[in-house]
Amino acid sequence: MHVRILALLAAVLLPLPLLAETTYTYTGNPFTELYGPYDSSDHLSITLNFADPLAANLDGWVTPDSWSMTDGIFTDNSAAANHQALFFFTTDGSGVITGWDVEDTTFIGIQLISDFISPESSTDSSDNYLSRLTNGENANNPGIWTETTSDTPEPASLVLFGSGLMALAAAARRRFSRS
Length: 179
Known about the structure:
The structure is a single chain. The chain is of the alpha+beta class. The chain folds into two domains: 1-17 and 155-179; 19-153. 20% of the residues lie in helices and 43% in strands. A hairpin with a 4-residue loop joins strand 5 and strand 6. Helix 1 (2-13) packs antiparallel against helix 2.
């Protein structure tokens, strides 16, 4: 009897499908040109979340499920009202990011940009294009992207698993009450 319960429990647990969320995190190098509130510890950081990893040999615009950006002074994310961010990526045959153009022009007069074509042609900047009195920039010294994947159970599978557990508990209760 206990063997049947264990076998049924294993049959319910093993096929739980998982959803994998992929997070790409960019860590820029410290700004080297500084004006206004920036200092040499400020840099551009970007986090993008996708349901699936970026495709191999990609060369185009993408839309993340969520995103956030900061330059050490200003922070913006996809939950903010009236945000406008653009994401263009190129990847190699393995899906590794080889080029990008990420721009956030949400802030009133502030523009965050990370742009990479080659190590000799890259820019991370935070620019107040209304006053030009605040600016942080790092040219030709790109940061790095890291990719992490987290597996989470699919919601429908969790409902099915819970239903199976309740059925097992009800069957065990009936057997216990009969004896």
